[in-house]
């Protein structure tokens, strides 16, 4: 280790005194000005992780759905997955080490994780459009360089694009070319094949309005435009040229507030969708002729994909094991519909795509979506091989054609992580192939009324949960209080959990009417405020 170099560079990226951060749901998130040292150190950690795995590691500088003033960083493991949990601990340790302890902590990590410091290290870097992101990604580069690692800076990319190129690089091109061009070509080829099939069966031109949250999605859709088949017309809104990132727009805003984003004029029954700031989430919506807003969230996306894939698997005569993975935020009505009507097993895990991804890997076809629109589909290697073979060799025309559709779906889906662009194309292809309108899709089931709120507390870690975050273990008395409140309403449930990306406690409630869901969420918020050390003024009724 270049000890002098380490001293020099860590002095350039000093740790603010007394600051402690934790590698949370999606890496580190905080105010951008607090993160320079974290970026530098995550550059170092990525170099170590690369040496430990003998593969290229990704570092993405983004705070995704958080406000523009925030930033964040997450590491991407060799196959494009989230960083292995055992290394999250090292990340937290390294980020919180005092400047003079850095060398010691690096040595400790090398010992614990059996890192050979003589090996080559390779890191891919990407960043979102936040004003702070460029400088922070330079700090990442300094961290990689100080430990003698090589890097490739992809500059402005969506989070899922970075996951994709990392996976391509480490699978020697088997997953695709590790370039943005390779990504656009792979997705557009599969999409064009699928959409052609629907157009030949008389489907009209498809139109979609996209709110890009004033983030990276707009830039990348513009780059991709030349690859799109002409039969699909997209109109981009909130492209970041006028307004602030994620401000009153984007997938998180639309989902949480259950209303359209600012800056998108919506006519009745027009198809619209929103990406989030780094384009790894998507939700759909429309306004009916009476002017009512209808949200089609991650649960309904998972349902549409499940129905479609189940039908195709039946057509090709395959009994592959398929399952859906959700979190506690999944609307109860979606879980019931998936289990009872679609007849697919459903599993509930903790919030965070890393948990959903992990569970989905247990199946031949694992569909995972968070209600907030973050998700994808995983095909096991064996399932993928079977499908590709059937698409090539199956003698029965109908079966072969169904296998070809499945094969194109496999290529269109970004299996490394939830991807708004890829998910949008998957949804558009399914709707076109099934000849479904957004309204028909929405009518599959009716969501139970729900409400999601945030409560400020002094230390959100006083809340500890169990049972996939559906029950609070601490502080004492909180769960009992929630149970009593839930009993007051029909068809109700509620839970609370500390956010891993914002300094808040999240409260979720469902009930038979919107008024009751709102009232229950408010009462639970008050319970959190009183029992978990609320900050500022008590939560107000909705
Ligand atoms: C991140 C995670 C998601 C998670 C969301 C909210 O999304 O990737 O899996 O659902 O944060 O997490 P929390 O409730 O813990 O704040 P994103 O889009 O911000 O990266």
UniProtKB/TrEMBL annotation:
GO molecular function, one term: phosphoacetylglucosamine mutase activity
Phylogenetic lineage: Eukaryota, Metazoa, Chordata, Craniata, Vertebrata
The UniProt record lists the keyword Plastid: no
EC number: 5.4.2.3
Cofactor: Mg(2+)
Domain Phosphoacetylglucosamine mutase AMG1: 181-283, 297-435
GO biological process, one term: protein N-linked glycosylation
Protein purpose: Catalyzes the conversion of GlcNAc-6-P into GlcNAc-1-P during the synthesis of uridine diphosphate/UDP-GlcNAc, a sugar nucleotide critical to multiple glycosylation pathways including protein N- and O-glycosylation.
Keywords: Acetylation, Carbohydrate metabolism, Coiled coil, Isomerase, Magnesium, Metal-binding, Phosphoprotein
Pfam families on file: AMG1_II, AMG1_III, PGM_PMM_I, PGM_PMM_IV
Enzyme kind, highest EC tier: isomerase
Matching PROSITE patterns: PGM_PMM (PS00710)
Binding site for Mg(2+): 64, 276, 278, 280
Pathway: Nucleotide-sugar biosynthesis; UDP-N-acetyl-alpha-D-glucosamine biosynthesis; N-acetyl-alpha-D-glucosamine 1-phosphate from alpha-D-glucosamine 6-phosphate (route I): step 2/2
Domain Alpha-D-phosphohexomutase C-terminal: 452-525
Active-site residues from the entry: 64 (phosphoserine intermediate)
Homology family: Belongs to the phosphohexose mutase family.
Record-given protein name: Phosphoacetylglucosamine mutase
Organism per entry: Meleagris gallopavo (Wild turkey)
InterPro entries: A-D-PHexomutase_a/b/a-I (IPR005844), A-D-PHexomutase_a/b/a-I/II/III (IPR016055), A-D-PHexomutase_C (IPR005843), A-D-PHexomutase_C_sf (IPR036900), A-D-PHexomutase_CS (IPR016066), AMG1_II (IPR049023), AMG1_III (IPR049022), PAGM (IPR016657)
Binding site residues for substrate: 370-372, 497-501, 506
């Amino acid at each position: 280790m270049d000890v002098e170099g380490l001293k020099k560079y860590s002095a350039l990226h000093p740790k603010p005194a007394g600051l402690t951060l934790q590698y949370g749901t999606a890496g580190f998130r905080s105010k951008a000005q607090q993160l320079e040292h974290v970026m530098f150190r995550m550059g170092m950690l990525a170099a170590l992780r690369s040496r430990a795995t003998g593969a290229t590691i990704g570092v993405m500088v983004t705070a995704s759905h958080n406000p523009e003033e925030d930033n964040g960083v997450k590491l991407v493991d060799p196959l494009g997955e989230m960083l292995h949990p055992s290394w999250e601990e090292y990340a937290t340790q390294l980020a919180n080490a005092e400047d003079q302890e850095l060398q010691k902590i690096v040595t400790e990590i090398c010992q614990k994780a059996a890192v050979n410091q003589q090996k080559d290290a390779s890191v891919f870097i990407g960043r979102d459009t936040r004003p702070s992101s460029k400088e922070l990604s330079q700090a990442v580069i300094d961290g990689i360089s100080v430990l003698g690692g090589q890097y490739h800076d992809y500059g402005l990319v969506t989070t899922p694009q970075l996951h994709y190129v990392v996976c391509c690089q480490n699978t020697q091109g088997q997953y695709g070319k590790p370039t943005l061009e390779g990504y656009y070509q792979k997705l557009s080829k599969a999409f064009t094949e699928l959409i052609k099939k629907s157009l030949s069966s008389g489907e009209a031109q498809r139109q979609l309005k996209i709110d890009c949250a004033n983030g990276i999605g707009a830039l990348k859709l513009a780059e991709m435009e030349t690859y799109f088949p002409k039969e699909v017309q997209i109109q981009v809104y909130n492209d970041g040229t006028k307004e602030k990132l994620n401000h009153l727009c984007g997938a998180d805003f639309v989902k949480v507030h259950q209303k359209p984003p600012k800056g998108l004029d919506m006519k009745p029954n027009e198809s619209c969708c929103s990406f989030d700031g780094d384009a790894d989430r998507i939700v759909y919506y429309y306004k009916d002729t009476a002017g009512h807003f209808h949200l089609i969230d991650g649960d309904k996306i998972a349902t549409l994909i499940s129905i479609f894939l189940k039908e195709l698997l039946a057509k090709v005569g395959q009994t592959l094991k398929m399952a859906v993975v959700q979190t506690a935020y999944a609307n109860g009505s979606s879980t019931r519909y998936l289990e009872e009507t679609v007849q697919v097993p459903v599993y509930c895990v903790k919030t965070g795509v890393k948990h959903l991804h992990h569970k989905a890997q247990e199946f031949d076809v694992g569909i995972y979506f968070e209600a907030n629109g973050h998700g994808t589909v995983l095909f096991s290697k064996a399932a993928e091989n079977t499908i590709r073979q059937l698409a090539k060799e199956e003698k029965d025309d109908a079966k072969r054609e169904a296998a070809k559709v499945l094969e194109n779906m496999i290529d269109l889906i970004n299996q490394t992580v939830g991807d708004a662009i890829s998910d949008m194309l998957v949804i558009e292809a399914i709707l076109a192939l099934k000849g479904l309108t957004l309204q028909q899709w929405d009518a599959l089931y009716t969501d139970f009324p729900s409400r999601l709120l945030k409560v400020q507390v002094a230390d959100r870690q006083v809340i500890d949960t169990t049972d996939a975050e559906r029950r609070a273990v601490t502080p004492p008395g909180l769960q009992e209080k929630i149970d009593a409140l839930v009993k007051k309403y029909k068809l109700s449930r509620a839970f609370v959990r500390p956010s891993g990306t914002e300094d808040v406690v999240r409260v979720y409630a469902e009930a038979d009417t919107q008024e009751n869901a709102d009232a229950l969420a408010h009462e639970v918020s008050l319970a959190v405020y009183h029992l978990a050390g609320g900050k500022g003024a008590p939560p107000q009724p909705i």
